[in-house]
């Protein structure tokens, strides 16, 4: 009986040894973690077109080189198109649409006339030249004519005669009166005028000027009287329904 009992115990111990070894192997696999997938395995399972043909288990061949070239070319083209579209977006291109609406009545616009010569030289008197010659850039601070070689011969002769202040007694000078007298007049500039098919003249305009002495430009803002803004019997022959002002 004792011998039989000892054999049973030994048999149980022998059976426990393989089970312990299996548990140790499982623990070692858990500690080691999952093995990384090779790039060939990733490419074969990827849905990206052409990647499986580039990274394959085959040896390097012309087929793999052509697939790699096509893949890189397609990728470069995609990046170029995306870059061009992003740049196009940040340029903020826009389309402007204009709708023309016919108006039954048009308001006469304000017309501003700016001349290169601020004042009419023919209207500048000797007294004006004495008081405002330096302001008009016709004389210097010593009442002398600067840059005579650049002036017109005829105008230079007139200017020399007006700039001769020997035995000259100056009179009071008013800047507003000088602006009104020496400034440009609409009667000298307006050749013809039509608005809404009606003929207008210089009497239909009024002058809007700024205060003198404030460095204003020689400009006349002209606007037609409201009494002239009536519906025409026929459109203007120049623009259909607009205004036409001819200046000389």
Compile the SSE list and pairings.
Elements: H1 2-32, H2 39-45, H3 51-54, H4 62-90, E1 111-114, H5 126-132, H6 153-162, H7 175-182, H8 186-189, E2 190-195, E3 198-199, E4 205-208, E5 219-224, E6 243-247
Antiparallel strand pairs: 1-5, 2-3, 2-6, 4-5
Task: Write a structural description.
GO terms for molecular function: ligand-gated sodium channel activity. The chain crosses the membrane at residues 65-83. The protein is an alpha+beta fold and 248 residues long. It has 3 domains: 42-90; 105-120 and 183-248, no CATH class; 122-178, acid-sensing ion channel 1 domain (acid-sensing ion channel 1 fold, Orthogonal Bundle), CATH 1.10.3590.10. It is 40% helix and 11% strand. It has a 3-stranded antiparallel β-sheet with strand order 1-5-4, with no helix packed on it. A hairpin with a 2-residue loop joins strand 2 and strand 3. Residues 1-17 and 210-243 have low confidence and may be disordered.
Salient structural properties:
6 strands, 11% strand, acid-sensing ion channel 1 fold, membrane, disulfide bond, alpha+beta, transmembrane helix, three-stranded antiparallel sheet, ENaC, 248 residues, disordered N terminus
């Amino acid at each position: 009986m004792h011998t039989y009992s000892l054999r049973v115990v030994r048999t149980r111990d022998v059976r426990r040894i393989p089970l312990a070894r299996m548990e140790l192997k499982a623990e070692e696999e858990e500690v080691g973690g999952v093995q990384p997938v090779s790039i060939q395995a990733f490419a074969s399972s990827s849905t990206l077109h052409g990647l499986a043909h580039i990274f394959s288990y085959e040896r390097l061949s012309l087929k793999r080189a052509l697939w790699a070239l096509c893949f890189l070319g397609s990728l470069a083209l995609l990046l170029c198109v995306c870059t061009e579209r992003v740049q196009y977006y940040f340029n903020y291109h826009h389309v402007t649409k204009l709708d023309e609406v016919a108006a039954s009545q048009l308001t006469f616009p304000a017309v501003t006339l700016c001349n290169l010569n601020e004042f009419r030289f023919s209207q500048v008197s000797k007294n004006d030249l004495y008081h405002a010659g330096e302001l008009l850039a016709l004389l210097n601070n010593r009442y002398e004519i600067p840059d005579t070689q650049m002036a017109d011969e005829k105008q230079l002769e007139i200017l020399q005669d007006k700039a001769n202040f020997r035995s000259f007694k100056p009179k009071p000078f008013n800047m507003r009166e000088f602006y009104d007298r020496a400034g440009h007049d609409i009667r000298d500039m307006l050749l013809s005028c039509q608005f809404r098919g009606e003929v207008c003249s210089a009497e239909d305009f009024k002058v809007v000027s700024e205060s003198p002495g404030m460095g204003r430009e020689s400009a006349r803002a002209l606007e037609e009287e409201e009494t002239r803004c009536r519906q025409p019997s026929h459109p203007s022959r120049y623009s259909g329904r607009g205004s036409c002002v001819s200046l000389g």
